[in-house]
Amino acid sequence: MAQTSGPPSTTAAGLEGFREETVRAMGDRIHYLVGAKSGADRAIVLLHGGIIDAAHVTWRPVLESLAEDATVVAPHLPGYGPSPLPEAPLNIGRHVESTAALLDELDLTDPVVAGLSMGGGIGIGLGLTYPDRVDGLVALDAMALGDDLASGPLTWLLATVQVTNNLSVELMRRSRGYVRFGLEQLVADANPVPEPLVDLVHAEVKRPGAGAAFRSLRASEVTWGGYRTNYADRLPDLSVPTRIVHGRDDHVFPTHWSKRAADRIPDASLTVLEDCGHLPTWERTDDVADVVRSAL
Question: How far is it, in rounded angstroms, from Cα 56 to Cα 219?
């Protein structure tokens, strides 16, 4: 595994058996978490979402559990967490290429790739573009499975006028309560926001440049007519076994995207999680771990 040692671990703090490393892939310096029990012969790559996110935010509840069965590699995608923001604009396609380069640099052959939201779209793109590099996919509440915008033209306007995102980031930096309020919009009404999640997001939003990677992605991906990257019509060509998971109460991406995807992908299953919004790793932790583990 070609790698360079990272700085003293910060995002791995409190995660037994995990450490933070860095690697250069496609010109990007990518920090990642890695952990495994001795003797693991399979690998799982976990891809996080957008907005204010990082590997140890989305995936923290399941990292130690999954490391019981496989080597777990969870990158902080370019511009997120401690990974620097690239100069080039970000979009789903660029994330697909940098993730493929990461797999090469770490000599990860035939891993299971699981992604949430933006990470789910990246995983689907990876399976379509490099099917020989991926042994299985798990796409949770995935982006890039449709093009309809949740709030129609308002979504496009918010992506175009970036001042609203800048203001939200500043409010989250100043107020832990505002962080909780934002997360409440992502979970199902029946679920309280876990306080450890509030702490993790509040810490991430204080990083210099927090939110810039998501603004870059949104500027590239959100158009007046809908999301630019939409893999829906290409899904019949996806040859990688795929598990689709979606929270029934997700208001970010509609459940029908995932239902359509499961119908179109030749080897796919669909799990719709009850009482679950857009954060299934926190809302339905055991169910998510079971689905990812079943892909090994």
Answer: 25
Counting every residue, how long is the chain? 296
pLDDT digits (tens, 9 = 90+) for 271-280: 999 999 999 9
What pLDDT, in 10s, does the model give residues 203-214?
999 999 998 999
pLDDT of 163 > 60? The answer is no
Nearest-angstrom CA–CA distance, 28 and 125: 19
Whose CA is closest to 16, among 77, 48, 60? 60
pLDDT greater than 60 at residue 1 = no
Return the CATH fold of 4-147+229-294: Rossmann fold (3.40.50)
In 3D space, the residue among 183, 174, 187 whose CA is nearest the CA of residue 51 turns out to be 183
List, as own/partner pairs, every contact residues 167-171 make where C-beta atoms lie below 8 angstroms and the sequence separation is at least 24, other chains included.
168/211, 169/52, 169/205, 169/210, 169/211
Task: List, in sequence order, the alpha helices (H) in the chain.
Answer: 55-58, 60-66, 92-105, 118-129, 153-160, 163-174, 176-184, 195-205, 212-221, 255-264, 280-283, 285-294
